[in-house]
Amino acid sequence: MADFQTIARQFVEFYYNTFDSDRNKLSALYRDNSMLTFETDAKLGTKNILDKLTGLPFNSVKHQVATLDAQPSNESGGILVMVTGALLVDEEQRPMNYTQIFQLLPDGTGSFFVFNDIFKLIYG
Amino acid sequence: MADFQTIARQFVEFYYNTFDSDRNKLSALYRDNSMLTFETDAKLGTKNILDKLTGLPFNSVKHQVATLDAQPSNESGGILVMVTGALLVDEEQRPMNYTQIFQLLPDGTGSFFVFNDIFKLIYG
Fold this sequence. Notes:
The structure is a homodimer of 124-residue chains.
Chain A: H1 4-21, E1 30-38, E2 41-44, H2 46-54, E3 61-72, E4 79-89, E5 96-106, E6 112-122
Parallel strand pairs in A: 1-6
Antiparallel strand pairs in A: 1-2, 3-4, 4-5, 5-6
């Protein structure tokens, strides 16, 4: 199996490519016990998380990752991932800085799912 | 036992108060399997982490927390904590934005220790 750094990079690339092309397809990455905190809004489970992500008030979005760091999060193969970056929505010219963290857990079939997801915009 | 949100808030307050008053005392919060990623520098274990934190090139620092979010990180009482904020070092007038995440794990005696710690400055 690939090391945690490689898995983290592959996950982040896949996640934002999917987010920026078709947010509906992110459902494959969550499970019913997954948690999302998006700004101040907390959601539990694939359906509530997808409703939140697909309902965000923009049509197009482009994430640009600036930094990506990862650490093992437990002894069962979990991976903690932290991203900082910028995003552009719709016709907006000025990117917004954000930071996002994920805990990825093995799903038992050789893949990973998102157990924890916290997203925050950075102001100032 | 207090809920995870309360523990996260108490931890963050204690962590930065300790960091800003006497960084040496942070050693009580780490264990030999703790991981720190400080910007691009990765450290394992209490001694290496403390050497890094106490060796940072400033005399005084003041952290100001802007946002604090937490989620349970496993079924054994672990807590994932994400902080965004600003910090001022020495005579510098302009605060630097940062984001920091921790995974806290129960230490078996009713307290928690820092298993994962990732710190990044936010530019731009």
